[in-house]
Amino acid sequence: MLKVENITKYYGEHLAVDGLSFEVKNGEIFGLLGENGAGKTTTFRIIMGLLDSSSGKVTLDGKKIDYSMTDKIGFVTEERSLLGKMTVKEQILFYGALKGMKEETILKELDYWLKKFEIEDYLNRKIKELSKGNQQKVQFISAVIHHPKLLILDEPFTGLDPINVKLLKEAIFELQKQGSSIIFSSHQMEHIEEFCEKLVILVKGKVILEGYLEDIKKDYPKKKVVIKADDLKEEKITKVKGVTKIEKKKDEYLISIDRMEVVDPLFQAVKSFSVRKFDVLEPTLNEIFIEKVGALNDK
């Protein structure tokens, strides 16, 4: 289990991370979110032992992360960190050796991952000759070749088409089942919703929202209702107190309400119109993120 306990990091007088704490259990995928400059990269570097925090501590399975622990960590960064003149085989042998693996074991694992990602023909191709998407696959392989205890994924789907995104998602869930603790960071909120049960949102290094995604959505006051009904009159909807917005989409109405208590009076107002659909929609994480982060940026 990874434990981040009240870490703070200053660069001179600039406070980059402000009292950040969270835990990632074995087999758990945790979301670390924020705008550019929110403190995510600094946090990753502290977790990996590349930076010392100004205060607080980080432990993996109860031990401080230092050079004796870094072999248990894998990191997929948005920026390419591959050596373009090396072949795929040379690149992975190099990274595997850095993690203390034997060549025979590295090649066995590499064969498995190349087949899984459907790029086994690229074994002896130079990195610079590969597409951006295939380079990203090789970068992922380099991060997981040693079966990391902790895996950090920073925008892991960059450069991948939908088919290859699916392959990478399957690989991430496989590592989760094997017990890896995973930190996932992305600006694509639909990926966070798919992977993460728990998350933290940072703004200027400070936590503004944290907890289980399910609870965060329940506590978010704004909801939407989709209604499909015969000859529905808009004025019936507008008279309901708590309705904040009405959008007509083909033969459906998308109604924004400011609290869940509005659902029942809204249904009572429209039920006489032969309602064929009445669904209460959860807010998306993207909506919550924009409102929470945007509100602070406007101050």
How are the secondary structure elements laid out?
Elements: E1 2-11, E2 14-24, E3 29-34, H1 40-47, E4 55-60, E5 63-64, E6 73-76, H2 88-98, H3 103-116, H4 132-144, E7 150-154, H5 162-177, E8 181-185, H6 189-195, E9 198-203, E10 206-212, H7 213-219, E11 223-229, H8 234-238, E12 243-249, E13 252-257, H9 263-270, E14 275-281, H10 285-297
Parallel strand pairs: 3-8, 3-9, 6-7, 7-8
Antiparallel strand pairs: 1-2, 1-4, 4-5, 9-10, 11-13, 11-14, 12-13
Helix pairs in contact: 2-3, 2-4
Describe this structure in words.
The two termini are 37 Å apart. The longest helix has 16 residues, at 162-177. The chain is an alpha/beta fold and 299 residues long. The protein has helices at residues 40-47, 88-98, 103-116, 132-144, 162-177, 189-195, 213-219, 234-238, 263-270, 285-297, and strands at residues 2-11, 14-24, 29-34, 55-60, 63-64, 73-76, 150-154, 181-185, 198-203, 206-212, 223-229, 243-249, 252-257, 275-281. The mean pLDDT is 91. Strand 9 and strand 10 form a beta hairpin. The strands form three sheets. Strands 6-7-8-3-9-10 form a six-stranded mixed sheet. Helix 2 (88-98) packs parallel to helix 4. The protein has ten helices and 14 strands. Helix content is 34%, strand content 30%. The chain is globular.
